[in-house]
Design brief:
The chain is an alpha+beta fold. Helix content is 56%, strand content 14%.
Length: 989
């Protein structure tokens, strides 16, 4: 092998980079574990909400403290947290939601709630069609309007030809042009909603939040791993944006109050002191030291200015709308102190109704601490703003005459009058623009302004101007975003999934490592080293790109581990063939690693799987994307480690004079001199496969498949109880509450149930979700003991009974999810069909591979249909099941392509032999590799199935069935079909 030194250098450097990236996860986890320990030690009555608050308090206190010192640089907890590998919802807990900005309400708003009959009839028809269509709402509306409009145009004054849209839609303009304008307005509304939601989420404080728009569908996906206060999150993301314009007090006007308040706070907190720790190089900081709570330290008196830093105005030039600043970690304490009755009593009469609001953005001080500004708003008895946001017609970021960024703003007639009065009354003073109780800007008013005005500032950046323009447009948001799909996983269930998954994953890897050594001896040890390096590389890359690791993602890693082992098995079996043919060790190794040897089959198998991964990533969503990402990363790393790392180790051993035999006393002689006549048994195989498939299809059409809520719509709750429960009894009890009996099944342990219902799923609104959850609690009350509704709700850690996880999917999006999944499956099959056709240049090979894959999928579906009613674990057909099916597809193709590659080789080398003999001998020669690879893969999957979490058992069962069926089909379906198709093709010529 050439360039050994370069490969060795690359492997070492890449390994070090991977370890470096994973170290951030290690140190972040260590700090988070310390936070949990602190919360456990200080919580009262094991209160989950208080425990979460204590964890947050601890993490806030160490946010900017160094936790990793590499000598040349240091990293704080905030730094390592930003670089750690992210865990998905199913492993960490949290909330994943898809929100729908109602395009219908946007259209109503743009039409000034038109009463035009054709317009309203088109909206009703579009509503109905959307339930079973994947087209956008605007497309459906446009089609329906064309059907009923007759001579009426969308630009009619009674629809969109309004005064407010007169500069965008001309009188008597054609419908197609109006439609383009409407699409722009809808995109603008969705974009505004997106920015508002992103701003809210950034302030929520969870690690690695994810928010993204889903095409032009009006949907926004939000994922908040680790979020525990689910009620607060749902309110945060569904409440309508509230834009307000307020007069403000200057720092000069409130500084007297701050000084009075400072003295009063010192008096109130005279018994509450902070500590000034004495430096001691022999003593490490413990939890209390980090939180400033060590009792044996110098006492320092607290006051308001311990937490708040006033912006003092000593001259007219220093007068500002910014009145104070504070550390972000101290804002809750400042809010609490400023709301105290004793402090509010100090306010002079002219400041009686003042309310203090924080800036929407933070700044970093020289030492890296996050600082945020405070403003004093001139509120009133009714807390009503001078101007509300619904008066804004449009806003945009523009440039002034000096090419500096500013914000252009246009108001309606009512707003113009209010704005003109507000600015006229405050010339030389400041006006604050506030969204969701955060101040976005508080500029100085230099002149009275009218309907068109601009907001500018000497240091305003383009990004800040764009943010402010977005905020101003948020004032015309037509509706709050509505949750159409939500998945909530409680932290307790997430932690259990982590513990079970990683324990079983570790056990599975251990079993594979042992098997490879038992079977291949020292060569197996080299393969194990390559496998461990491969796992290091995969996790290192995931950490480097801040990718999210999920349970389906782990499945992708499992598949690549199987492929990595498979590559070494193929190579080792080829080397053994050379040794068996009396070739020297060096020559056998050279041939085994060559393109003519094992490399061709390895590359073909990896490319087919890679193509599957790409299609899945493009068409898939959620779990399918996670699976596809880890699969693609794993293919690249497994190819490198299996071929190059193993080769380096083997060559090194040979150069040292080691006699490698590639077997042990345990495995010597296995699968040698085998000559099975597979093709003679193909008719029996066809009958067996046909019977199983027919039974499965009959079951699917009669019994059906148990679709998950993500495919059929509905609500699903995993509820844990304090004692064993009867699913039948609970279903009967809940029938009285819901009107119809929900589907209830034991989920894992016998004190845990999965309850699925379609009760009121067609109704919209957050209040409906709350009412359904309350109905569930009421129905389960006889079994919940002393559990309160507050503790029953999902979120926070559960010590007793309560909802461990929750999923809701509205029927409309359920159809979309199902359609996307089908596109992903059939898209991957089409691409693989074309690749195999291109690679093998015969359609018979493509037919054999694709028929085998369909065979495997149908059998797995049939098994699920026949067994789901009595299996002791969840066997729903949903997105995770699709990921499992695609894993089966990838595995089956991998197996089939390796066999086909060997058949092609035999056909080329032994041209005078009949095709049937070549096929049988080729398949027989790969039998050792086929069985060995299947056995190692099954070891991994069985370990995870037996010892993994409850949520992954159905997923792993599908994989186990798929691997067994895939191994069988590559031998008895794909190859015979390919042979029969080749014979037919030859006859037709």
């Amino acid at each position: 092998m050439q360039n050994k030194g370069l490969i060795k250098l690359f492997a070492i450097l890449f390994g070090l980079v991977s370890l470096y990236q994973l170290s951030f996860t290690f140190f972040a986890t260590k700090v988070e574990n310390d936070a949990k320990a602190y919360a456990e030690n200080n919580v009262v009555d094991n209160d989950a909400r208080q425990k979460a608050a204590l964890e947050t308090k601890y993490l806030d206190s160490v946010a900017n403290k160094d936790v990793l010192d590499l000598g040349v640089t240091k990293y704080s907890y905030n730094d390592v947290r930003d670089k750690e590998m992210n865990l998905g919802l199913d492993l960490k807990g949290g909330i994943n939601a898809i929100l729908q900005v109602s395009v219908k309400e946007v259209l109503r708003s743009l039409s000034n709630d038109s009463k035009n009959e054709a317009f309203n009839k088109a909206l009703e028809s579009a509503d109905e069609r959307q339930k079973s269509s994947n087209a956008t709402y605007l497309d459906l509306f446009f089609e329906e309007f064309e059907k009923v409009a007759e001579d009426t145009k969308l630009s009619d004054p009674s629809i969109f030809g309004t005064k407010a849209l007169s500069d965008k839609i001309s009188f008597n303009e054609d419908n197609f042009s109006v439609r383009e304008t409407l699409q722009e307005e809808i995109n603008s509304s969705i974009g505004t909603a997106f920015e508002v939601l992103r701003s809210r989420i950034d302030k929520f404080g969870v690690t690695s939040p994810n928010i993204q728009r889903i095409g032009n569908s009006g949907r926004i996906q939000i994922e908040l791993p680790g979020a525990k206060d689910i009620e607060r999150v749902t309110k945060l993301i569904t409440s309508k944006a509230e834009l307000q314009f307020w007069e403000v007090y200057t720092n000069a006007e409130v500084q007297g109050f701050f000084f009075s308040a400072n003295a009063k706070v010192a008096e109130l907190l005279k018994d509450d002191t902070v500590t000034e720790q004495v430096k001691d190089s022999t003593k490490k900081d413990d939890i209390d030291d980090l939180l400033g709570e060590t009792p044996d330290s110098t006492k320092v008196q607290k006051n308001l200015f311990t937490y708040l830093f006033p912006v003092v105005a000593q001259s007219q030039q220093q007068v500002s709308s910014l009145v104070a600043q504070a550390k972000v970690t101290d804002t809750a304490r400042v809010n609490s102190l400023l709301k105290k009755k004793e402090i509010r009593d100090l306010l002079p009469s002219e400041l009686r109704y003042v309310k203090f609001l924080w800036d929407y953005k933070t700044n970093k001080s020289d030492d890296g601490t996050e600082i945020i500004g405070l403003y004093a708003i001139k509120s009133n008895r009714n807390d009503k703003a001078n101007i509300e946001g619904d008066v804004i017609l449009d806003a945009a970021q523009v440039f002034d005459q000096l090419n500096k960024p500013e914000v252009s703003m246009t108001m309606n007639s009512s707003g113009t009058k209010q704005w003109s009065k507000l600015t006229g009354d405050n010339i030389g003073k400041f006006v604050a623009i506030v969204l969701d109780d955060y101040v976005y800007t508080a500029p100085k008013i230099n002149q009275k302004l009218g309907s068109m005005s601009s907001i500018s500032g000497g240091s305003m950046t383009i990004e800040e101007a764009e943010d402010i323009a977005t905020v101003l447009k948020a004032g015309k948001l037509p509706a709050a975003a509505r949750i159409i799909q939500i998945e909530v996983v409680g932290p307790s269930l997430g932690q259990e999934a982590i513990d079970a998954s990683f324990l079983s994953f570790g056990l599975a890897i251990f079993l594979v490592l042992i098997w490879m050594i038992l079977y291949y001896g020292k060569a197996g040890l080299f393969a194990d080293v390559a496998l461990l390096v491969n796992i290091l590389f995969i996790f290192g890359i995931l950490a480097s790109f801040n990718a999210v690791l999920t349970l389906p993602g782990i499945a992708g890693i499992i598949l690549t581990i199987g492929m990595s082992v498979d590559a070494n098995v193929i190579i080792f079996e080829r080397i053994k063939e050379g040794l068996f043919g009396k070739k020297g060790l060096k020559q056998s190794v050279e041939e085994g690693f060559s393109v003519k040897g094992a490399l061709s089959a390895i590359i073909d198998a990896n490319i087919t799987t890679l193509l599957t991964g790409i299609i899945l990533y493009v068409f898939g969503s959620g779990p399918i994307k996670g699976f596809a990402l880890t699969l693609m990363i794993g293919i690249a790393t497994s190819l490198f480690t299996a071929v190059f790392i193993t080769r380096l180790l083997i060559d090194g051993a040979i150069n040292k004079g080691t006699n490698l035999t590639f077997n042990t006393s345990f495995s010597k002689g296995w699968f040698q001199n085998i000559n099975v006549e597979f093709l003679k048994k193909r008719k029996i195989a066809y009958i067996i496969s046909g019977a199983i498939i027919l039974a499965g299809i009959a079951s699917i059409f009669s019994i059906g498949l148990k679709q998950g809520v993500d495919f059929k719509g509905g609500r699903s709750y995993v509820v844990r109880f304090d004692e064993s429960m009867s699913a039948t009894e609970v279903a009967g009890t809940l029938k009285d509450a819901f009107g119809t009996a929900p589907e209830v099944k034991t989920y894992g342990s016998d004190n845990q149930l999965k309850i699925t219902t379609v009760y009121r799923i067609e109704e919209e609104g957050q209040e409906v979700d709350e009412e359904v959850q309350n109905t569930l609690f009421t129905g389960l009350k006889p079994y919940l003991g002393n559990t309160t509704y507050e503790n029953f709700k999902p979120g926070f850690e559960k010590q007793g009974a309560g909802v461990m996880s929750y999923m809701k999917v509205e029927p409309t999006i359920a159809d979309d999810i199902k359609t996307d999944a089908l596109y992903a499956v059939f898209g991957s099959l089409l691409v693989v069909f074309l690749y195999i056709l291109l690679r093998f240049r015969k359609i018979s090979y493509s037919i054999g591979a694709v028929v085998a894959v369909f065979h495997d999928v149908l059998i797995v579906l049939g098994v699920f249909s026949i067994t789901y009613s009595f299996m002791p674990f969840d066997m729903e057909i949903g997105q995770s099941f699709i990921a499992a099916i695609l894993t089966v597809v990838g595995y089956s193709l991998n197996d089939t392509v390796v066999i086909f590659d060997r058949i092609r080789e035999f056909v080329g080398d032994y041209k005078n032999r009949p095709l049937g003999e070549n096929v049988d001998k080729a398949v027989s020669s790969t039998l050792g590799r086929t069985i060995n690879t299947s056995l190692t893969t099954l070891l991994v999957m069985l370990a995870i199935f037996l010892f993994g979490g409850d949520s992954i058992k159905g997923f792993m069962f599908a994989l186990i069935v798929g691997v067994i069926v895939g191994t069988y089909s590559s031998l008895f379906v794909a190859t015979p079909i390919m042979y029969d198709a080749s014979i037919k093709e030859k006859k037709n010529k």
